[in-house]
């Protein structure tokens, strides 16, 4: 039996070995070697720490005043300026996060749909025979829906998709069809209710853009189904890597792989890969 999840142990290493999660599945899809090193605690990525913290700052505000206060206190050295004229004030990134918060806070639709829900609800279940965990930003069970909150650099930026060789939006690029499909399934298994996914996204532009997004159309259903099939096809390999039965494959180009790269041979100039 996997360890029972609580708010305290949800992000702990111990439960990370018991349950697959959306973010770790994505880690494995990007680079198996980096994902395993991260899970083992052998390596911490440099790049994504700051945007992640800004996103969590925004989340905690809409969770509860207590959660926000605790978050600021726990991360004080990173959030507050400690020197010069601005000492004791929020650093620029977090002043700006307050602008993003206001953009949502002023929205009637957001207040009506997102705010009433139960926040940070832990859900678990089995996807194709393996244990999974998830955390729902805002769950409104009696109205059969849940919401996820995203901070995104630009809501309308195009992202190149190598698989389909076409441009797509941030939902596809960040794997959010998969995340919504996973959460829907885990809520079903935890509470016995089929809930509709909604997403509120706010941009990190000087004047923040915002969107309320649903996943109710036919094309959304197809993409969510395809995402679950992707999990079914790949997760056994990832679990086997975690159990040490298969060696992880390095992607050869991520932060982790670059830091472990050893020059061994020459490559023809015309053969240098571009991505
Ligand atoms: Zn890699």
Automatic annotation (TrEMBL):
Gene3D superfamilies: 3.90.320.10. The keyword Thylakoid does not apply. It holds the Pfam family DUF3799. Residues 21-259 form the Putative exodeoxyribonuclease 8 PDDEXK-like domain. Keywords: ATP-binding, Helicase, Hydrolase, Nucleotide-binding. This is PD-(D/E)XK nuclease-like domain-containing protein. It comes from Limosilactobacillus alvi. The lineage of its organism: Bacteria, Bacillati, Bacillota, Bacilli, Lactobacillales.
């Amino acid at each position: 039996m996997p360890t029972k999840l609580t708010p305290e142990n949800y992000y702990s290493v111990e439960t990370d070995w018991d349950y697959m999660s959306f973010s770790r599945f994505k880690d494995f899809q990007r680079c198996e070697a980096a994902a395993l090193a991260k899970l083992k605690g052998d390596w911490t990525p440099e790049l994504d720490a700051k945007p992640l913290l800004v996103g969590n700052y925004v989340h905690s505000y809409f969770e509860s005043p207590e959660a926000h206060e605790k978050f600021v206190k726990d991360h004080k050295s990173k959030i507050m300026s400690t020197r010069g004229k601005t000492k004791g004030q929020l650093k620029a990134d977090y002043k700006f996060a307050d602008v993003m918060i206001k953009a949502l806070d002023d929205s009637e639709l957001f207040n009506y749909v997102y705010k009433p829900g139960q926040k940070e609800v832990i859900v678990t279940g089995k996807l194709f025979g393996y244990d999974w965990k998830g955390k729902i930003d805002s769950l409104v069970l009696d109205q059969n829906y849940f919401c996820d909150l995203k901070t995104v650099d630009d809501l309308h930026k195009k992202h190149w998709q190598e698989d389909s060789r076409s441009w797509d939006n941030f939902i596809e690029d960040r794997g959010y069809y998969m995340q919504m499909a996973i959460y829907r399934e885990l809520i079903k298994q935890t509470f016995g209710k089929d809930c509709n996914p909604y997403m509120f996204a706010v941009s990190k532009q000087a004047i923040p853009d915002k969107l309320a997004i649903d996943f109710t159309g036919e094309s959304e259903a197809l993409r969510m189904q395809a995402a679950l099939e992707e999990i079914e096809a790949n997760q056994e390999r990832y679990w086997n890597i975690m159990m040490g039965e298969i060696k992880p494959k390095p992607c050869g180009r991520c932060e982790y792989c670059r830091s472990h790269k050893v020059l061994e041979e020459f490559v023809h100039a015309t053969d240098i890969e571009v991505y």
